[in-house]
Amino acid sequence: MAVFQILIIDDFDDIVEEFVVMLELLGFSAIGAATLDEGIATLKRHETIEVIISDVRLPGHSGFELVDAMKTDPVLRDRHLSCIFMSGEMPISNNSLAYPVMAKPLDMARLLAELQRILGGGPPQ
Q: Taking 60 as the threshold, does the pLDDT of residue 93 lie above it?
């Protein structure tokens, strides 16, 4: 079984670091990015990323632009990628996407349940 990774995109380094550590303690493999462009570049370099947890508001961009890149970028458009968005401003009125948006600070039990739903269980054993 191939090991998959979770990509965390947030412009606050401490949030990214906390998520990476927490997810790894739960048995997941995680990697972080601070900007949308860095996140897209990371996705292109790491084919094992299957889930993205991204802030809705990123410097100069909306996290929702990630979905556009996933659909149109020739390197990303054929990959099966799932997203979970997070925001400090709830509710998000323009979320016409099929991806969940969770309020910051994230409820870790709810995040873990969402990851298990997406991945069909828990972290790889």
A: no
